[in-house]
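Sat 14:20. Reprocessing the chain from the morning session after the first attempt stalled halfway. Input below, unchanged.
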Amino acid sequence: MKAEDLKFIVQEKYGEIASQSKIQNQSSCCGGTACCDDMDYTIFSDDYTKLEGYNPDADLGLGCGTPTEYAGIKKGDHVLDLGSGAGNDCFVARTIVGEAGHVTGIDFTEAMLEKANINLTKTGFKNIEFKKGDIEAMPLPDNTFDVVISNCVLNLVPDKQKAFDEIYHVLKPGAHFCISDVVINGVLPQGLQEAAEMYAGCVSGAIPKNDYLEIVKSKGFKNIEVKKEKEIRVPDEILLNYISQDELQSFKNSRIGIFSITLVGEK
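Finished this time. Tokens:
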């Protein structure tokens, strides 16, 4: 599928998701009226409820980790969240940076930006902003941010080389990123690779872990480290929407694995 087609699928799907609650996302129904697909977009998500700054209105259950946990964010830092959605990680980061810091969220889905700004209005915070932009070509100045975070988003970007180029440019010298993302070990069955819903659900867009780390290294980052890794089990009933019973059995017997990793790297 062409890159622009993939981007359109992601925008359309996450525009639908923005109108839902976390509970509705878990049932995979658009707007609570009719099921638009059988993909559970919350299968990778971590529990945010005990984190300071947690905003339930901003938690759509779309992450695959907690990047702020390992991001080394300090008071006064300028933080950028890539694919900020309804603002979940931005509100947690704002609690850490305090009044002296600043948090920017970037997303290319209008409905998500609208939801994030509604959530922001309720908080009264003045040092968070949400901008529309493509991660492959960010409308942001170079050498601006102390920390870049992202949560289960870069696997949705068709050109990960461009994405990490952009991350490198917007970070200050000596600054760093902390990204939670989905990677694979092995090769996914063809039916999963070609399913648009599995792409938007952060599965078919995932690349092998070693390839992911090699891209990061090739962009000049140093002190690259996987801080956390967990295997993700996609329920059989979801997989069977895209592959046959025989393919499912072969998939389960293979060494193919889908993992969430939280990765750090320094400019």
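The longest helix spans residues 3-17.
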